[in-house]
Design a protein that fits this description.
22 helices; Beta-Lactamase; 4 domains; seven-stranded mixed beta sheet; alpha+beta; Chemotaxis Receptor Methyltransferase Cher, domain 1; Rossmann fold; 612 residues; 45% helix
Length: 612
Amino acid sequence: MSLQSNNPEFEALLEYIKRSRGFDFTGYKRSSLMRRVLKRMQTVGIEDYKNYLDYLEVHPQEFIQLFNTLLINVTSFFRDRPAWDYLTEELIPILTVYKDSHQPIRIWSAGCASGEEAYTLAIILCEALGIDQFRERVKIYATDIDEEALVQARLAIYPIKALEGISPELVVKYFDRTEQHYIFRKDLRRSLIFGRHNLTADAPISRIDLLVCRNTLMYFNAETQTKILTRFHFALNDGGFLFLGKAEMLLTHTNTFIPVDLKRRVFTKVGQIDRRDRLLTMAPNSNAEIHHLTTQFYIREAAFDSGSQAQIVIDISGYVILANEHARRLFNLTTKDLGRPLQDLEISYRPVELRSYIEQAYTERRSMSLADIEWLTPANEIIYLDVLVVPLIETNGNLLGVTVSFIDVTRSKRLKKELQQASQELEMAYEELQSTNEELETTNEELQSSNEELETINEELQSSNEELETMNEELQSSNEELETLNNEMHCRSEELNQLNTFLEAILTSLRGAVIVLNRDMHIQIWNCMAEDLWGLRSNEVQGQHFLNLDIGLPSEQLRQIFRSCLAGESKYQEIKLDTINRRGKTLQCQITCTPLMSRDKEIGGVILVIQV
């Protein structure tokens, strides 16, 4: 069936669902919506939308299965882990620092499905604030349109497999174990409120500090997305954060949200905030950084070398790796001195003993400062320096080295009595900073204008990405169904193995030789007593024609008995024959021939029981 977006029969089906059940899917993307409806129609064996509408009218219970198909509830704890790590390490500390200790923290998880996302938020906030602060200050509002998913979320009961994304320490700390499930702690569960909410129709929750809506917007068309984002903008406090899924970009909503980390889909609300705070929010991922990374590298290198303050950088092994032009001139350093141990250079003890302060900075992991150090320059001029030793620490806590800055404070000492002039200079510096901020704002607007030329291509790529994400969700759902079928097949195989073992035990336990033949007289079963009597193993005679075997048994005398049994003329026949066993001994055997009957009374062969 075609997936064209303007199918009148499909639109009529959506209108019927909206009118009869109150679910408005008209704002969803037609391609994804049609694909999910077609999947449900194939399940019930209906080929067109009109007949499916009639089916819904006659079978109202079908609505439940249809909604479960349309509302894809694929979620997990800490899903897309790098994004959650960024939220834990960067955003949550900002929320806790910039809000007073008595102020509440309000979080909204929109499209929460079965609740894993909401409980993930509870865990990281408990880790950041502590259990007591979490219970006193935090409220997490988790909403979804699927009432069945909300019922599961309110129970807070999850199978053991669902907690694979959580470290064992956190599982023990925040979940109570039962025989086959884990239950989220009841004392913390009271801070979470679950409720049904339609993002396209219901009023948004207000005064939110963090709004998490991951992989939900991608199911809506552009017009509906704009409507929902307008509601999100209203819901968030000024400076609040919006956390989206990896398939959602917001490139066309820069007037309401600006990126904090575009890679991890974290945005902040554009509200009534001063320029300084706005620049600090934009700085980590401004568009200038994206387009000018290479240029920035050289600019930073040139800025370091031409800095007004003398500065050297020493690595963790004690080697001088950088010294700017001011430092080289002030302390008679050359390019040959770079890469040498600090202890071999005069600067290690003049103008001040640096090695002890560097060691202290490493030990205490904090900056060390020394004031008013007197120094005689190569030009025989006495100057005064402030020395600042700053440890360089990676985000994972490893020490990289230190940077040592020599700040010339000679003029400051000479002008301590000229407070008025210093105040005027400070005011001028502030005005220059303000001017620089305004120039940066202008530059950002120009870059935004350039980015708008790329929006069309980016939106097409975003749409393709959202389609792929949807298909991935569908494949995951199908994989779970296949896994269930595989488990059932495994159980059936075990049952079959048990039956085969039981049948083999029966055949082994019988006192006589048991031989089962099909209608063509080919051997199907040859038990151990037959092996012992005739000296042939089962794998040697399997599939062989019984009458062609040379085993000392006058098999030609049995041909007529076989025919009589296969024709259904008698239920069984008996005959006594003289035979020679595998040891050459003449024996008299009593042979019983019975038809092999199936459940529907069809004869599939014969069963021979030979007793000596």
